[in-house]
Design goal:
Blueprint lengths: L1 H18 L10 H22 L7 H4 L6 H24 L3 H24 L7
Helix pairs in contact: 2-4, 2-5, 4-5
């Protein structure tokens, strides 16, 4: 009877230990790459639109109607750099799905702004 009980406990312990897994705390590059690509796309398309005679709609954030590339990058960096640290902390504590979601959201905002900027008509092209 004791042997049967021991075998039963061992048979339950094996699947339970197999379900335990250590959290993935490695640095994964995909959220960073997507986030930076989205924000870079917005800067590139915005600069292109400036050459077509467009002006920046968010002048209070950028300081002028046609800010320099350095100013565009600096303002974006003010928002993106804290997000980079937040993603890194999420990864460090094993929350890779959350880190991916944050990178996807931040990059998606940049790609969304770039996509919208592609539809803007201004200047001589009107």
């Amino acid at each position: 009877m004791r042997i049967m009980l021991a075998l039963l406990l061992l048979s339950l312990a094996s699947p339970l230990s197999a379900q335990e897994k250590t959290p993935d705390t490695k640095l994964h590059w995909s959220p960073y790459v997507f986030m930076l690509a989205g924000q870079a796309a917005d800067v590139v398309i915005t600069r292109h639109n400036f050459s077509q005679g467009c002006t920046e709609a968010n002048r209070s954030a950028f300081g002028s109607a046609q800010p320099t590339t350095a100013r565009l990058i600096a303002v974006k960096a003010a928002a993106v750099v804290p997000t980079v640290f937040f993603i890194a902390m999420m990864q460090k504590f094993g929350h890779q799905k959350a880190a991916n979601a944050i990178g996807l959201l931040t990059g998606g905002i940049g790609f969304g702004a770039a996509g919208y900027n592609l539809t803007v008509q201004c200047g001589a092209g009107r």
